[in-house]
User: What shape does this take?
Amino acid sequence: MTILVTGGAGFIGSNLIDQLTLEGHKVICLDNFDTFYERSIKEANIFEFSKSDSVEVLEGDIRDRELLGRIFGGNKIDLVIHLAAKAGVRPSISHPHDYYDVNTIGTLAILEAMKKHSVSKMIFASSSSVYGNHTPIPFSEDAIVDAPISPYAATKRSAELMCHVYCMLHKFDISCLRFFTVYGPRQRPDLAIHKFTKLIYEGKAIPFFGDGDTARDYTYIDDVVAGIINAAKFLKGYNVYNIGESKITSLNELLEILSNEMNKKVIVDRLPFQEGDVQVTCADVSKSKREINYNPSIDMPEGIRRFLIWFYAQY
Assistant: This one.
């Protein structure tokens, strides 16, 4: 099978491609090496598989329709796994145009290229942020998600709806996977666990927004990769699936786990709660378990231990 992975040099994408190559697939990795964080990080992510005969790494933008035409026209693509996006809730508040352009218009460009070249199967990376602050916990895929609280969340919901349109009009098979706070080796340096770990390691203060009661459903990268691959095996029509651990860890609890596992004291710099951040995320994964055999198995303490092994190797 030939699989196009957009955003393939990123945290989730590179871990996914590692597994896809182990399973014998041919992969086209498309990434624009966005300057959101250092290019060298993505180059390190792809170092091993970029030497593989089964992976082609292409640098380019998903909004470049001519480039997409060459990729789709020059390859018999069986499946698109669309991970590329402008990431981050807080930056989306200050740069909403950029987020709309990449996440919404970019997704439309991918869908149009698929239509033109008769590719009908896609996994789309959505986000738990679409649930906002008023969805009953745990979050169910059947919940009404028409009240996003950040431009990032709004772009992800818009892209989900566009995927639905193409399923209805052009008989595509698309599953939108709502990821819940993914962490693990290669995690982006701006995300909480990586950022906090580095600051604790260096003996610096952690920016601590609010009272520490905000909570997340942290999901280990290996479980997410398995969820993506499983979802691809059950593509039929339009579907939405939660990809989470279905367990809540508060900010206070996270810092306690990190402190214990690193055997270091945590210094906090208390700051006001940030606009755009949801208070709590928690996935109902019963539909994912039932329909795509999703089975998250790595709990928070074990996941943190695995992350720290990678972190210490880097630093």
